[in-house]
Amino acid sequence: MRLVTAGLTVALVIIVGGLVAGGLLLSRAWGPAPAPPTLDPRVQLTVTPLATPVGTQTSPNPTPKASTPGTTPTAGMTPTALSNSTNPARSALAGVVQVRTPNGQGTGFAWQQQGTTTRILTAAHVIADAPQVRVITPDGQEHPAHVLRVNEHADVALLEANDTGGLRPLPLGSAAVLEPGDPLYVVGYALGADLLGDPTVTRGVLSGRRVIDGVACLQTDAAMNPGNSGGPVLNERGEVVGIAAWGVRERAGVTIQGVNFAVTIEQARDALGLP
Q: Which residues are catalytically annotated?
């Protein structure tokens, strides 16, 4: 009798164990699917393109240049990176001004000096309908200016200011000799007072020549932003070949990038009757 009871107990244990194991298998096979793995919200994958700043590129085998007496090349930078040939915007900074009106602000640059009077070129829309115009020179001084000539169709204007100190007229070049792909530099007070200090310098190429509503323009991918209007566009020798005017930001709901325009310096001089 004891043997029968023991046998029944063992059989019962085996049967119950089998049922439990089977239940576990069925729950795995037919139960709810496990939740998909989730990313830790602290993990972020980003790709940030970095542009090479102007003046930091070096050639594979740079040719050393003689140092100016009394100066030492900066460590980690070749002497060629300090020359105006690789940074034509450097010498232009002394001739660029911020143009301010009660309606807004833009950029201008010195065209001609006669005694203590400086004549400044800018864009017409920068000073449009302004009761008063002021220019801020590179030394931070503010000077009243008055409008001498305006051509709204070509979007260029000529200002005059007195006692502008060391403001230096920029050399003028020729837009007519440029070819697509030639480097261009835009100098101006992008975003105005939001970016204090020196004007912003951007670099690109001549993307093409355009005649827009009868006005000769240079198309470039060099960045232009609000506040750049009226600033100089320079060739690789640091000569002014255009005046920053506008950029295309959107067309038929599509965002446009790198399509900016400058009035050629020849067109500006002709429109204002300048020699």
A: 125, 155, 229
